[in-house]
Amino acid sequence: MALTARWHGDETRWLALRLLPGEDLRAELEAAFASAREEEAMSAGFVAACCGSLHSAALRPAGRDEPLQVPGPLEIVSLSGTLSLDGPHLHMAVSDEEGVMRGGHLLAGCEIRTTAEIVLGLTGAARFHRPLDVRTGWRELDFG
Fold it and tell me: Signal peptide location in the record (predicted)?
């Protein structure tokens, strides 16, 4: 059976961010969630929307242990994932100037080229965390 967490929509706080050239996408998302945790006791979050551009991307595609460095310039086509007390789990797809797309886990080292416009949904009504799941060998999302 799937694990579920539920909360009322009015218990979600929306946070819009605009990142500037040179900022690191993952680091800024982690900092925004850490600030929301400290200031407003937010304990779970998710990426609702994102668009923008990068100088290059650092991704970890499925089945690969080492980072994949994708040279830019790049457009952020999609960013999705969760923000938890134990860290984020974020997936990103980017396209190059030919429209060729690459994707995987978002890693540190994705420098903003012109901007990144991001909307986060945050709540204190649920608690996201990532204990080790012995079935997968990975730290997977759990609710408390």
Answer: none
User: What six digits make up the tokens of 118?
Assistant: 């991001």
Which pLDDT belongs to residue 3? Answer: 75
Question: Which tens digit of pLDDT belongs to each residue from 9-60?
Answer: 899 999 999 999 999 999 999 999 999 999 999 999 999 999 999 999 999 9
Per-residue pLDDT tens digits for 52-69: 999 999 999 998 989 999
How many Å is the Cα radius of gyration of the chain? Answer: 15
**DSSP string for residues in 95-137:** E-TT--EEEEEE-S--BEEEEEEEEEEEESSS-EE--EETTTT
- Helix/strand/coil for 8: coil
Tell me, what DSSP letter sits at residue 81? E
CA nearest to 26, candidates 48, 7, 54 = 54
Kindly report the pTM of this predicted structure: 0.93
- Using omega within 30 degrees of 0 as the cis cutoff, is the peptide bond preceding 61 cis? no
Tokens of 53: 């551009």
Per the CB < 8 A criterion, the answer to whether 88 and 28 are in contact is no
CATH class of 26-143: alpha beta
